[in-house]
Prior knowledge:
Elements: E1 18-24, E2 31-33, E3 52-55, H1 59-63, H2 82-106, E4 154-156, E5 167-168, E6 185-186, E7 195-200, E8 206-210, E9 215-218, E10 226-228, E11 236-241, E12 247-251, E13 256-259, E14 267-269, E15 277-282, E16 288-292, E17 297-300, E18 308-310, E19 318-323, E20 329-333, E21 338-341, E22 349-351, E23 358-364, E24 370-375, E25 382-387, E26 393-400, E27 404-409, E28 415-419, E29 424-427, E30 435-437, E31 444-449, E32 455-459, E33 464-467
Amino acid sequence: MARAAPAGAAAAPPVASALPDVVTCASCGRETDASSRYCAWCGRAIGPATAVARPAATAAASSAHAPPSAPVQPARPRRFKPARVVAVATLLAVVIVGAAAAYAVSRPDGEFTGATGNTTGAPTPSSTGPSIKDTPTPKKTKSTGQGGSVSGQAIGTPQPGSTTPSVKAAPAPTEAAHAAVSSWSHAGSAGAGTLVNPACGDSSGAWVAGYGGRILTSADGGVSWTSQDSGTSKELIDVAFADATNGIVVGHKGTILTTSDGGQWWQSAYSGTKENLMGTTFLDSTTACAVGTTGAIVMSSDAGRTWQKRSSGTSEFLSGVAFCDSQSGVIVGENGTILSTDDGGATWWSRSSGTTLWLCAVASMDPSHAWVVGGSENGAVGMILATSDGGVTWTRQFYGEKTLYGVAFSDLDHGWAVGLAGTILGTDDGGKTWRSYSSTSKNLWGVTFTDADHSIATGSGGTILLGGLPGE
C-alpha cells in the first residue's frame, strides 16, 4: 500500500520514461525537437540529421540544452534587404524592356487578325472603334487612289499556273511620325447618321451614301448638300458615278439602286444576291462591278440595270473594288484577301498580301499602281499596302495605331487615307512618307477627290470634310 507523503512536503514531479527524440540543428548547433522541421532556437530548417532517442535519466542533462517545452515555432522570416530587391527589380525591368523592343521589331504582319463575319449594324458616334459584329467595314470603291506608310516586306504572288510565290526584299518597317497639319474643313451640317463612301461625277457634282437609305448630293464641290429620295431604308454602303448623270448605290441584302439623271430618281435593280454589297465601281461608262460578303461579285454591262454573278474563288468577306480602266481591277477583303483581274473581271486571281489583317479599301491609278488600306478588327492597327507591278507583289508602306477604312489618290504622288477616330493621312510622294492631318475625332469611312486638287471625306455623325492636296 502506498504511503502518503508527509504533510507540507512538496509533491515530487513525475519522471518521464524517455524524452522525445532530439537532433542537433545544423545552423545553430543546439539540440531541438526532432518532431519539428524547424529549430526551436533559430527558426531555420533543421536539415538532414539522425534523431537519437534519449533515456529518462538524461532528462536533467538535456534540459540545460533543450528549450522549454514550447510549441513548435514556424520559420523565422529573413531580414529584408532593400539593396537586393532594388537590384533584382532593375534587372527584371531591363529584361522586360529588351524583350518588348525585340518583339515590336520582329512581330509579323498577321499578328493582328483581320475581322471576320458578315457585318450588319452601324457604328455609334460615341464609339471608339467599330465592332465587327455590328458594323460593316466601309471601303473606297472608285479608282481614285489611296496611300500608305511604313515599308516592310513585299511578298510576291504566283502568276496563273505558278505554285510558288516570289519574295523580294523591302526596307525595314519605319513608322511615319510627322507634325499634324490641318488642311481639312467641315462642310455644312448633313444631319445625324453615318455617311459611308463619297463619289464624284464631275468637278462639282458629288454624292454620298449612308445608313437608313440616305443619299446626299452636292453641286458645289461639297460646300452644301441636299437629300435625294432613295426609296429604301436599308443601309447603303457605297456609291459610284460614271459621269454626272449615271450612278450606282449598293448596300445590305443585295440592294442596288441606279440613276441616269444624277439622282433625281433612283430605281431599284435586281442584283441576284442577298449578300451585303460593300463596294461598287464603274469600269467604263456602262460596265460596273459590285462586291460583298461571302465572296460575292456581280457585274453589269448596262450601267447597273441588270446584273450577273461572277466567281471570285473565295468565300471571304469582300470589302472594296477598284478599276483603273475597263480591264485592270483589284478587290480586297478580310484575312488579307486581294484578288486581281486583267480581263475586265471575267477571271480573278488570288494574290498574296503578306498579312491576315482586314483590307477595307483599294484605289487603282493605272494597270501597275494601286494602294490598299485596312487594319485590325478591334481598330488598334492600321496598314497601307502598295503595288507597282499590277498587284503581283505588295509592299507595306504604313503600319500605325488606327484602322484605315478609305483611300483615294489624285495622281501617282498625291493621296489620302482615312480611318478610325478621325485619322487622316496624306502623302505627296506616292506613299513613301505619310503625314498626319487632324480635323475631327469622328470615324471616317470614305474619301474621294472631286477634281485634281479637291477632296471630300465622310464619316460618322453626318461628318463631311473638305480638303485639298496633301502637302499644301
